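Section 5: illustrative case.
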């Protein structure tokens, strides 16, 4: 494996981030987290904008899943799972926003954790080493699920702790730019990471501005816009998947014709 020192630096930074979290006090869930702006009922759908806006996740997930199913290389299972997690994110988030509470939030956060961990694995697969990506993918998925379960059980015990779920959500978005800087490799993936990171940052800003936008009286709140922008963030991955799926289909056709 080339540039092993870069890999050890990256792994050391990852471990250090976990150690820092371990020494921080528990972070409880904001008691007002479930209080979203503009929770109007439309056509019998409560919190309609927050529920319906999750169609974006489902749409890009279905399109991406169909394209990734045509791949014939090692990326196929990871990409198919990523798009499946995006579909589950849309369904889980819609289920949560229909009647927001901690128990339903679990089914919103588990699919998101699967998507974040798979996205990080895909970055490692493309820029570091495919063998390493295969080895850590399942452990990362397990860590994502465990972080959500840990948060929920800690909330039930009256000692809410979001630290590990926060790591699952935010660390990949910090780690991916580090990987791009450390591993200067050519490829289509570099052209898609910047839009993903920018859209993610803007989506988090819209989430924080949920009530502010609603109070402007423009008929929009921040959270539904966050859903739509987060779904738009992975559209470049759809295009990337489509390009490689087309190349895979041509390769299979050429093999069959020989």
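Designed sequence:
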């Amino acid at each position: 494996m080339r540039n092993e020192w870069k890999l050890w630096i990256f792994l050391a930074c990852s471990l250090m981030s976990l150690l820092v979290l371990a020494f921080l006090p528990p972070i409880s869930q904001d008691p007002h987290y479930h209080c979203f702006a503009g929770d109007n009922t439309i056509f019998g759908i409560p919190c309609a904008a927050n529920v319906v806006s999750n169609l974006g996740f489902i749409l890009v997930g279905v399109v991406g899943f169909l394209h990734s199913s045509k791949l014939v290389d090692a990326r196929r299972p990871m990409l198919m799972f990523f798009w499946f997690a995006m579909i589950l994110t849309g369904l889980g988030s819609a289920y949560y926003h229909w009647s927001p509470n901690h128990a339903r939030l679990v089914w919103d956060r588990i699919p998101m954790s699967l998507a974040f961990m798979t996205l990080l694995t895909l970055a490692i697969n493309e820029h570091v080493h495919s063998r390493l990506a295969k080895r850590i993918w399942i452990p990362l998925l397990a860590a994502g699920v465990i972080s959500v379960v840990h948060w929920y059980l800690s909330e039930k015990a009256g000692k809410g702790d979001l630290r590990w779920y926060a790591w699952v959500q935010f660390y990949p978005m910090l780690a991916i730019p580090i990987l791009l800087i450390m591993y200067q490799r050519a490829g289509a993936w570099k052209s898609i990471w910047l839009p993903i990171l920018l859209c993610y940052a803007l989506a988090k800003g819209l989430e924080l501005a949920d009530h502010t936008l609603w109070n402007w009286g423009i008929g929009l709140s921040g959270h539904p816009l966050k859903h739509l922008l987060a779904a738009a963030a992975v559209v470049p991955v759809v295009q990337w998947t489509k390009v490689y799926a087309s190349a895979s289909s041509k390769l299979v056709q050429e093999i069959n014709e020989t």
